[in-house]
Amino acid sequence: MSTISPEEMAKAEQALESVRDEWLQRDGVTAVDLGFKWSGGEMTGQLSIRVHVARKKDEAELSDAEMFPTEVEGIPVDVIEATYAPQALVDVKPEAAVEGRGGRYEVIPIGVSIGCKYSTAGTLGAKVIDQDTGDEMILSNWHVLAGRRDVEAGLSIWQPGWIDGGTREENTMAELSRWVLGPYDAAVARLTGDRPVQSTTVEGRAIEDMTAPRLGMMVWKSGRSTGLTEGFIDGVKMKVPLSYGQAGVHTLEEVVRIVPRPGTGFGEISTGGDSGSVWVDDDSGKAVGLHFAGEVGNSPEHALALNVISIAEALKFRFPAQEPAIVGPPREEPPKPPTPDRKPPSRPTPRRSFWDNFSNFLRRIFGSGR
Length: 370
What we know:
Largest sheet: 6 strands, antiparallel, barrel
Mean pLDDT: 88
CATH superfamily of the domain at 108-200: Trypsin-like serine proteases
CATH class of the domain at 108-200: Mainly Beta
Radius of gyration: 33 Å
Order of helices and strands: HEEEEEEEEEEHEEEEEEEEEEHEH
Structural class: mainly beta
CATH topology of the domain at 108-200: Thrombin, subunit H
Strand order of the largest sheet: 15-16-17-20-19-18
Low-confidence stretches: none
Number of helices: 4
Protein backbone atom coordinates (compact mmCIF):
# COMPACT_ATOMS: atom_id res chain seq x y z
CA MET A 1 0.00 0.00 0.00
CA SER A 2 1.36 3.43 -0.92
CA THR A 3 2.61 5.82 1.75
CA ILE A 4 0.81 9.13 2.15
CA SER A 5 3.09 12.00 3.17
CA PRO A 6 2.09 14.41 5.97
CA GLU A 7 1.91 17.22 3.39
CA GLU A 8 -0.49 15.21 1.21
CA MET A 9 -2.68 14.38 4.22
CA ALA A 10 -2.80 18.01 5.34
CA LYS A 11 -3.87 19.13 1.86
CA ALA A 12 -6.51 16.39 1.65
CA GLU A 13 -7.89 17.21 5.11
CA GLN A 14 -8.28 20.85 4.12
CA ALA A 15 -10.18 19.84 0.97
CA LEU A 16 -12.36 17.46 3.00
CA GLU A 17 -13.29 20.18 5.49
CA SER A 18 -14.43 22.44 2.64
CA VAL A 19 -17.18 20.02 1.46
CA ARG A 20 -17.94 17.45 4.18
CA ASP A 21 -20.71 19.19 6.10
CA GLU A 22 -22.53 20.31 2.94
CA TRP A 23 -22.38 16.83 1.39
CA LEU A 24 -23.69 15.23 4.58
CA GLN A 25 -26.91 17.23 4.15
CA ARG A 26 -27.68 15.59 0.79
CA ASP A 27 -30.30 12.85 0.54
CA GLY A 28 -28.87 9.35 0.58
CA VAL A 29 -25.43 10.31 1.93
CA THR A 30 -24.54 8.14 4.92
CA ALA A 31 -20.98 9.34 5.69
CA VAL A 32 -18.06 11.36 4.33
CA ASP A 33 -14.41 10.58 5.03
CA LEU A 34 -10.85 10.58 3.71
CA GLY A 35 -9.41 7.27 2.54
CA PHE A 36 -8.20 4.97 -0.19
CA LYS A 37 -10.10 5.02 -3.46
CA TRP A 38 -11.83 1.82 -4.57
CA SER A 39 -11.97 0.71 -8.20
CA GLY A 40 -13.78 -2.36 -9.56
CA GLY A 41 -14.18 -3.74 -6.03
CA GLU A 42 -10.45 -3.43 -5.35
CA MET A 43 -8.84 -0.94 -3.00
CA THR A 44 -6.15 1.25 -4.54
CA GLY A 45 -3.40 3.22 -2.85
CA GLN A 46 -4.81 6.54 -4.07
CA LEU A 47 -5.92 9.03 -1.43
CA SER A 48 -9.44 10.37 -2.03
CA ILE A 49 -12.38 12.18 -0.47
CA ARG A 50 -15.05 9.49 -0.10
CA VAL A 51 -18.80 9.92 -0.12
CA HIS A 52 -20.72 6.96 1.34
CA VAL A 53 -24.27 6.57 0.02
CA ALA A 54 -27.18 4.24 0.80
CA ARG A 55 -27.51 3.33 -2.89
CA LYS A 56 -25.01 3.98 -5.62
CA LYS A 57 -26.78 5.09 -8.80
CA ASP A 58 -25.74 5.02 -12.44
CA GLU A 59 -24.69 8.39 -13.73
CA ALA A 60 -27.75 8.49 -16.04
CA GLU A 61 -30.04 8.33 -12.97
CA LEU A 62 -28.48 11.33 -11.28
CA SER A 63 -29.68 14.90 -11.50
CA ASP A 64 -27.21 17.75 -11.62
CA ALA A 65 -27.86 18.42 -7.93
CA GLU A 66 -26.99 14.82 -7.04
CA MET A 67 -23.70 14.76 -8.92
CA PHE A 68 -20.45 14.99 -6.99
CA PRO A 69 -17.33 16.52 -8.56
CA THR A 70 -14.56 14.22 -9.72
CA GLU A 71 -12.09 16.07 -7.50
CA VAL A 72 -11.84 18.81 -4.87
CA GLU A 73 -8.71 20.98 -4.81
CA GLY A 74 -6.89 18.27 -6.75
CA ILE A 75 -8.02 15.42 -4.45
CA PRO A 76 -10.04 12.70 -6.27
CA VAL A 77 -13.62 12.00 -5.11
CA ASP A 78 -14.84 8.40 -4.67
CA VAL A 79 -18.44 7.25 -4.09
CA ILE A 80 -18.94 4.13 -1.93
CA GLU A 81 -22.19 2.27 -1.32
CA ALA A 82 -22.46 1.65 2.43
CA THR A 83 -24.87 2.19 5.33
CA TYR A 84 -23.85 2.03 8.99
CA ALA A 85 -25.54 1.45 12.35
CA PRO A 86 -24.53 1.12 16.02
CA GLN A 87 -24.15 -2.39 17.41
CA ALA A 88 -25.69 -3.80 20.62
CA LEU A 89 -28.65 -1.44 20.95
CA VAL A 90 -31.29 -2.71 23.35
CA ASP A 91 -33.81 -3.44 20.59
CA VAL A 92 -31.28 -5.32 18.43
CA LYS A 93 -30.34 -8.85 19.48
CA PRO A 94 -26.59 -9.39 19.06
CA GLU A 95 -24.97 -12.48 17.62
CA ALA A 96 -24.13 -15.27 20.05
CA ALA A 97 -20.90 -14.86 21.99
CA VAL A 98 -17.95 -16.98 20.86
CA GLU A 99 -15.26 -18.89 22.72
CA GLY A 100 -17.07 -18.70 26.05
CA ARG A 101 -16.93 -14.90 26.06
CA GLY A 102 -20.53 -14.71 27.20
CA GLY A 103 -19.75 -16.41 30.52
CA ARG A 104 -18.97 -14.98 33.94
CA TYR A 105 -15.28 -14.47 34.84
CA GLU A 106 -13.96 -14.20 38.38
CA VAL A 107 -10.85 -12.47 37.01
CA ILE A 108 -12.16 -10.54 34.03
CA PRO A 109 -10.13 -10.26 30.80
CA ILE A 110 -10.62 -7.75 27.99
CA GLY A 111 -12.93 -8.77 25.13
CA VAL A 112 -15.78 -10.43 27.05
CA SER A 113 -19.52 -9.75 27.43
CA ILE A 114 -20.55 -6.72 29.44
CA GLY A 115 -23.61 -4.49 29.70
CA CYS A 116 -26.27 -2.81 31.80
CA LYS A 117 -30.04 -3.12 32.13
CA TYR A 118 -30.53 -0.73 29.19
CA SER A 119 -28.39 -2.67 26.69
CA THR A 120 -28.29 -6.28 25.53
CA ALA A 121 -24.56 -6.97 25.62
CA GLY A 122 -21.40 -5.48 24.24
CA THR A 123 -17.69 -5.85 24.84
CA LEU A 124 -15.38 -4.78 27.66
CA GLY A 125 -12.83 -2.82 25.62
CA ALA A 126 -10.04 -1.99 28.05
CA LYS A 127 -9.04 -1.29 31.61
CA VAL A 128 -8.23 2.40 32.02
CA ILE A 129 -7.32 4.79 34.84
CA ASP A 130 -9.28 7.85 35.97
CA GLN A 131 -7.03 10.82 35.16
CA ASP A 132 -8.19 12.77 38.22
CA THR A 133 -8.48 10.15 40.97
CA GLY A 134 -6.31 7.25 39.78
CA ASP A 135 -9.24 4.83 40.17
CA GLU A 136 -9.40 1.77 37.92
CA MET A 137 -12.17 1.90 35.32
CA ILE A 138 -13.41 0.04 32.26
CA LEU A 139 -13.95 1.49 28.78
CA SER A 140 -16.77 0.66 26.38
CA ASN A 141 -19.50 2.46 24.39
CA TRP A 142 -22.30 4.71 25.65
CA HIS A 143 -24.82 2.31 24.12
CA VAL A 144 -23.25 -0.59 26.05
CA LEU A 145 -22.72 0.99 29.50
CA ALA A 146 -25.50 3.63 29.53
CA GLY A 147 -28.09 3.14 26.78
CA ARG A 148 -30.55 5.89 27.78
CA ARG A 149 -30.54 9.67 27.60
CA ASP A 150 -31.79 10.00 31.20
CA VAL A 151 -29.21 7.60 32.64
CA GLU A 152 -27.54 8.54 35.93
CA ALA A 153 -24.08 7.92 37.32
CA GLY A 154 -23.84 4.85 39.53
CA LEU A 155 -25.78 2.55 37.17
CA SER A 156 -24.77 -1.09 37.75
CA ILE A 157 -22.58 -2.63 35.05
CA TRP A 158 -22.80 -6.41 34.71
CA GLN A 159 -20.34 -8.99 33.50
CA PRO A 160 -21.70 -10.72 31.50
CA GLY A 161 -24.37 -8.54 29.85
CA TRP A 162 -28.02 -9.35 30.53
CA ILE A 163 -28.63 -11.22 27.27
CA ASP A 164 -25.81 -13.55 28.36
CA GLY A 165 -27.43 -14.10 31.77
CA GLY A 166 -25.76 -11.35 33.76
CA THR A 167 -28.82 -9.68 35.29
CA ARG A 168 -28.24 -10.76 38.89
CA GLU A 169 -26.80 -8.27 41.37
CA GLU A 170 -23.88 -10.62 42.04
CA ASN A 171 -22.67 -9.94 38.49
CA THR A 172 -22.24 -6.19 39.13
CA MET A 173 -18.54 -5.37 38.76
CA ALA A 174 -18.54 -1.61 37.98
CA GLU A 175 -20.68 1.52 38.24
CA LEU A 176 -21.22 4.01 35.43
CA SER A 177 -19.08 7.11 35.90
CA ARG A 178 -18.88 9.34 32.78
CA TRP A 179 -20.24 9.10 29.24
CA VAL A 180 -20.65 10.96 25.95
CA LEU A 181 -23.04 10.51 23.00
CA GLY A 182 -22.30 12.87 20.12
CA PRO A 183 -19.78 13.57 18.79
CA TYR A 184 -18.55 10.28 20.32
CA ASP A 185 -20.17 7.09 21.65
CA ALA A 186 -18.21 6.15 24.75
CA ALA A 187 -18.44 5.59 28.49
CA VAL A 188 -16.30 4.63 31.45
CA ALA A 189 -17.36 2.84 34.64
CA ARG A 190 -15.50 2.68 37.95
CA LEU A 191 -14.68 -0.82 39.24
CA THR A 192 -16.39 -1.89 42.47
CA GLY A 193 -13.43 -4.04 43.51
CA ASP A 194 -15.51 -7.22 43.71
CA ARG A 195 -13.75 -8.80 40.73
CA PRO A 196 -10.41 -7.68 39.27
CA VAL A 197 -10.12 -6.70 35.62
CA GLN A 198 -7.02 -7.53 33.62
CA SER A 199 -5.31 -5.29 31.08
CA THR A 200 -4.94 -8.28 28.75
CA THR A 201 -7.42 -9.88 26.36
CA VAL A 202 -8.79 -13.42 26.43
CA GLU A 203 -5.86 -14.30 24.12
CA GLY A 204 -3.33 -12.75 26.53
CA ARG A 205 -2.61 -9.63 24.47
CA ALA A 206 -1.96 -6.49 26.54
CA ILE A 207 -3.71 -3.17 25.85
CA GLU A 208 -1.92 -0.67 28.07
CA ASP A 209 -1.24 2.42 25.96
CA MET A 210 -2.68 4.37 23.01
CA THR A 211 -1.61 6.13 19.83
CA ALA A 212 -3.29 7.98 16.96
CA PRO A 213 -4.90 5.92 14.16
CA ARG A 214 -3.37 6.35 10.70
CA LEU A 215 -4.52 5.54 7.20
CA GLY A 216 -3.08 2.18 6.15
CA MET A 217 -2.50 0.92 9.72
CA MET A 218 -2.85 -2.84 10.34
CA VAL A 219 -5.01 -3.44 13.43
CA TRP A 220 -6.71 -6.16 15.50
CA LYS A 221 -9.48 -6.31 18.10
CA SER A 222 -10.82 -8.80 20.66
CA GLY A 223 -14.64 -8.82 20.81
CA ARG A 224 -17.51 -10.71 22.40
CA SER A 225 -19.14 -11.89 19.16
CA THR A 226 -16.36 -12.42 16.60
CA GLY A 227 -13.39 -12.97 18.91
CA LEU A 228 -9.97 -11.96 17.64
CA THR A 229 -10.16 -10.39 14.17
CA GLU A 230 -7.69 -8.45 12.08
CA GLY A 231 -8.30 -5.45 9.86
CA PHE A 232 -6.86 -2.51 8.00
CA ILE A 233 -7.68 1.21 8.37
CA ASP A 234 -8.85 2.34 4.93
CA GLY A 235 -10.56 5.58 5.99
CA VAL A 236 -10.07 8.37 8.56
CA LYS A 237 -11.63 11.70 9.55
CA MET A 238 -15.15 10.39 8.98
CA LYS A 239 -18.35 12.09 10.05
CA VAL A 240 -21.34 9.75 10.14
CA PRO A 241 -24.92 10.44 11.36
CA LEU A 242 -26.43 7.42 13.16
CA SER A 243 -29.79 6.69 14.72
CA TYR A 244 -29.69 5.69 18.39
CA GLY A 245 -33.37 4.86 18.64
CA GLN A 246 -35.09 6.78 21.44
CA ALA A 247 -31.86 8.73 22.02
CA GLY A 248 -32.20 10.32 18.56
CA VAL A 249 -29.82 10.83 15.65
CA HIS A 250 -26.27 11.88 16.45
CA THR A 251 -23.37 12.74 14.16
CA LEU A 252 -20.20 10.92 15.18
CA GLU A 253 -16.82 12.49 14.49
CA GLU A 254 -13.17 11.39 14.43
CA VAL A 255 -14.28 8.04 13.02
CA VAL A 256 -12.00 5.53 11.26
CA ARG A 257 -13.22 2.75 8.96
CA ILE A 258 -11.68 -0.71 9.24
CA VAL A 259 -11.93 -3.34 6.49
CA PRO A 260 -10.54 -6.88 6.02
CA ARG A 261 -6.84 -6.84 5.29
CA PRO A 262 -5.93 -6.83 1.60
CA GLY A 263 -5.23 -10.33 0.32
CA THR A 264 -6.96 -12.11 3.21
CA GLY A 265 -10.28 -12.65 1.45
CA PHE A 266 -13.65 -11.50 2.73
CA GLY A 267 -14.89 -12.23 6.22
CA GLU A 268 -16.63 -10.61 9.15
CA ILE A 269 -14.29 -8.52 11.27
CA SER A 270 -17.09 -7.36 13.59
CA THR A 271 -20.78 -7.88 14.25
CA GLY A 272 -23.48 -7.16 16.84
CA GLY A 273 -22.10 -7.52 20.36
CA ASP A 274 -18.56 -6.40 19.44
CA SER A 275 -19.40 -2.80 20.37
CA GLY A 276 -16.89 -1.47 22.87
CA SER A 277 -13.97 -3.49 21.53
CA VAL A 278 -10.67 -1.65 21.20
CA TRP A 279 -8.77 -1.76 17.91
CA VAL A 280 -5.00 -2.06 18.41
CA ASP A 281 -2.07 -1.17 16.14
CA ASP A 282 -0.14 -4.28 15.10
CA ASP A 283 3.27 -2.63 15.19
CA SER A 284 3.15 -0.76 18.50
CA GLY A 285 0.57 -2.82 20.42
CA LYS A 286 -1.21 0.44 21.35
CA ALA A 287 -4.93 1.17 21.23
CA VAL A 288 -6.09 3.34 18.32
CA GLY A 289 -9.88 3.08 18.11
CA LEU A 290 -13.03 2.29 20.11
CA HIS A 291 -15.34 0.09 18.01
CA PHE A 292 -18.97 1.23 18.00
CA ALA A 293 -20.68 0.51 14.67
CA GLY A 294 -20.59 -1.57 11.51
CA GLU A 295 -21.90 -1.79 7.99
CA VAL A 296 -25.50 -2.89 7.53
CA GLY A 297 -26.55 -5.70 5.20
CA ASN A 298 -23.27 -6.43 3.43
CA SER A 299 -20.51 -8.99 3.75
CA PRO A 300 -17.80 -8.37 4.74
CA GLU A 301 -18.96 -6.01 7.44
CA HIS A 302 -16.77 -2.94 7.53
CA ALA A 303 -16.23 -1.64 11.07
CA LEU A 304 -16.31 1.90 12.45
CA ALA A 305 -14.24 3.01 15.43
CA LEU A 306 -13.64 6.30 17.24
CA ASN A 307 -10.21 7.86 17.65
CA VAL A 308 -9.29 6.68 21.15
CA ILE A 309 -7.17 9.76 21.89
CA SER A 310 -10.23 11.98 21.43
CA ILE A 311 -12.23 9.65 23.70
CA ALA A 312 -9.57 9.76 26.42
CA GLU A 313 -9.56 13.57 26.37
CA ALA A 314 -13.36 13.75 26.54
CA LEU A 315 -13.72 11.23 29.40
CA LYS A 316 -10.51 12.09 31.28
CA PHE A 317 -8.81 8.71 31.45
CA ARG A 318 -5.45 7.19 30.59
CA PHE A 319 -4.20 3.70 29.90
CA PRO A 320 -2.25 1.81 32.58
CA ALA A 321 1.19 2.26 30.98
CA GLN A 322 0.79 6.02 30.53
CA GLU A 323 2.23 8.55 32.94
CA PRO A 324 -0.36 10.44 35.02
CA ALA A 325 -1.11 13.97 33.84
CA ILE A 326 0.18 16.84 35.94
CA VAL A 327 -2.76 18.23 37.92
CA GLY A 328 -2.85 21.84 39.10
CA PRO A 329 -0.93 24.96 38.08
CA PRO A 330 2.73 24.62 37.09
CA ARG A 331 5.19 24.98 39.97
CA GLU A 332 6.68 28.43 40.14
CA GLU A 333 10.43 28.88 40.37
CA PRO A 334 11.64 30.67 43.54
CA PRO A 335 12.48 34.32 42.93
CA LYS A 336 16.12 34.96 42.12
CA PRO A 337 18.12 37.34 44.41
CA PRO A 338 18.66 40.77 42.91
CA THR A 339 21.79 41.14 40.85
CA PRO A 340 24.31 43.29 42.74
CA ASP A 341 25.20 46.65 41.22
CA ARG A 342 28.59 46.09 39.65
CA LYS A 343 29.26 49.73 38.67
CA PRO A 344 32.49 51.04 40.15
CA PRO A 345 31.83 53.27 43.15
CA SER A 346 32.14 56.99 42.46
CA ARG A 347 35.21 58.67 43.96
CA PRO A 348 34.30 61.00 46.81
CA THR A 349 34.99 64.69 46.31
CA PRO A 350 37.81 65.67 48.67
CA ARG A 351 36.71 67.99 51.41
CA ARG A 352 38.35 71.40 51.50
CA SER A 353 39.61 72.94 54.75
CA PHE A 354 38.38 76.31 56.06
CA TRP A 355 41.64 78.04 55.09
CA ASP A 356 41.52 76.65 51.52
CA ASN A 357 38.03 78.02 51.07
CA PHE A 358 39.00 81.39 52.64
CA SER A 359 42.04 81.70 50.34
CA ASN A 360 39.92 81.08 47.27
CA PHE A 361 37.48 83.74 48.44
CA LEU A 362 40.27 86.33 48.76
CA ARG A 363 41.65 85.46 45.30
CA ARG A 364 38.26 86.01 43.68
CA ILE A 365 37.99 89.44 45.30
CA PHE A 366 41.59 90.85 45.10
CA GLY A 367 42.90 88.95 42.11
CA SER A 368 45.56 86.27 41.77
CA GLY A 369 48.05 88.08 44.02
CA ARG A 370 50.00 90.03 41.33
